[in-house]
Amino acid sequence: MISITDLMKSLNVEKYPERWNEIYYNAMKEYENYGAFFADEEYITKLNHEFCLFDDWFEIILIAAKQVRENANLMRYIYLLNYAMQDRNVFSVEMNKISPPLAPAGEDTYAYDFLLLFAILPAIPKTVQVMKNRGVPEDICNKTLKAYERCINSTNDLYGKPGFHFSYLSWFQLYIDAEILRIGRLNFAVCTHFNGCVYVLKNKLDEVQMLMTGVRLHKGGMVFGSPGYQNEELAYDADFCETKEYFEGYPVGDNGLAREYRIRLSKPEWRIALSPEDPVIGVHIPSAKYAGRLTEEGCEDSYLNAREIFTRCYPEYEFKALTVCFMDDGLPA
Questions:
Q1: Cβ distance 88 to 130 under 8 Å?
Q2: Which residues of 282-301 are buried (b: 16+ CB within 10 A; e: fewer)?
Q3: 303: which DSSP letter?
Q4: Which pTM value belongs to this model?
Q5: How far apart are the C-alpha atoms of 65 and 111, rounded to whole Å?
Q6: DSSP assignment, residue 157?
Q7: pLDDT for 333 beyond 70
Q8: 158-178 per-position pLDDT tens digit
Q9: Cα–Cα dist 50/122, whole Å
Q10: β-strands 215-218, 263-266 pairing
Q11: 314 φ, ψ (degrees, to nearest 5)
C-alpha cells in the first residue's frame, strides 16, 4: 500500500487535514476491496440518466473519468476524499486545510479539472432521498440538482475551461446535506446563524431600525477596509448595547450606510426582530446568464414559495428571516 505521504507527493498536493493520516489505512483497505466506482462510466451514466444532471458537458465528463481511471493515485485520492466527507461535522471544519491535486506540467488536465466532482457524485442518491423524505416537490429537487452542471458552466466562464473548480467544494456541502434548494429564480440555503453585523429591531407600527454591532466602521458609513474606506483615522468600532430600559447603537440610514452617531430605542416601544445568532434562510442570486433576467415578480414568487416549502419541509428549522447573502456570479447558480 502506498503511503499517504507518497500519494500526496505524487499528486502535487500541498496540504491535507491531519485527520486524513488517521483514516488513510481504513480508506485504502476499502479501496482495495471494492475499488472506486465513482469514476466508472457505467455508474456515471446511470446517475445521469436517473437524475438528469448533465446536458452540455456529459461527454467531456466521461473523457475526464476515463483519464482518472487510468491513474491509480487519482482513484485513491477521490476514494480518500469521499471517505473523509462521511464525517459531516468534522469535514465541514477542515476544508480550509485541503488543497487539490495539481496536474504535472504539460499533461492533459481533464482528470484533475473534474476530479472533485467524481468524489461527490456518490452523495447524490442520498441527497435526493433526504429531499423526498422531507416532501420537497420533485420539480424543486430536479432544479436543485442542476447546480452540478451550472458549476461546470461557471468554471468554464471563470477559467476558460470546464471542470469542477476546487473553490466549489465547500459550497457543494450544502447540496450534499440537502440544505440548499433552487426555488424559482433564486437559491435558498439553510443558515444556522445570521452572522450579520446588525441587530434588526421593530416597533409596534412595524417600523424597522438596524443597529450595527461587532464591526469596525468608517465615518463614510461603510465597513472599514472596504475599497475607498481604508483611512484608519476615520475608523471607529460599532457596538450594540442593551439595558433594561433601551437598545443603543449606530443606526443604518435609508441609503444603507451607517450613521456616525448613536441612538437609543426604548424597550417598551421596540423589540429585537433579528440578531446575529438567529437562524435565517440565505438567499443567493444566480447569474442572469444561466438563470434569466431578475424581475421583481419572479423574486416575489420565489420568496413566497420558499417560505412555504421551508416551513412545511424543514419544520425543525425555525428561521427568523430571509437574507440576501450575495450574487452567485461565479458560483453555482
A1: no
A2: bbbbbbeeebeeeeeeebee
A3: H
A4: 0.87
A5: 7
A6: H
A7: no
A8: 999 999 999 999 999 999 999
A9: 13
A10: unpaired
A11: -125, 60
Task: Please tell me the distance from the alpha carbon of residue 326 to that of residue 315, in angstroms, as a whole number.
Answer: 25
Q: Distance between CA atoms of 127 and 198, rounded to whole angstroms?
A: 34
Closest Cα to residue 18, out of 127, 77, 98?
A: 98
How high is the pLDDT of residue 108? Answer: 83
Outline where DSSP puts E strands in 246-321: 246-249, 263-266, 270-274, 280-285
Selected residue with higher pLDDT from 12 and 105: 12
Judge contact between 69 and 75, C-beta under 8 A: yes
User: What's at 300, amino acid-wise?
Assistant: E
Tell me how far apart the alpha carbons of residues 324 and 187 are, in angstroms, rounded to a whole number. Answer: 10
- Report the candidate in 222, 127, 223, 227 with the shortest Cα–Cα distance to residue 177: 127
Report pLDDT digits (tens) over 200-256.
999 999 999 999 999 999 999 999 999 999 999 999 999 999 999 999 999 999 999
Tell me the C-alpha to C-alpha distance, in Å, between residue 323 and each of 14, 51, 314, 320.
Answer: 36, 30, 17, 10
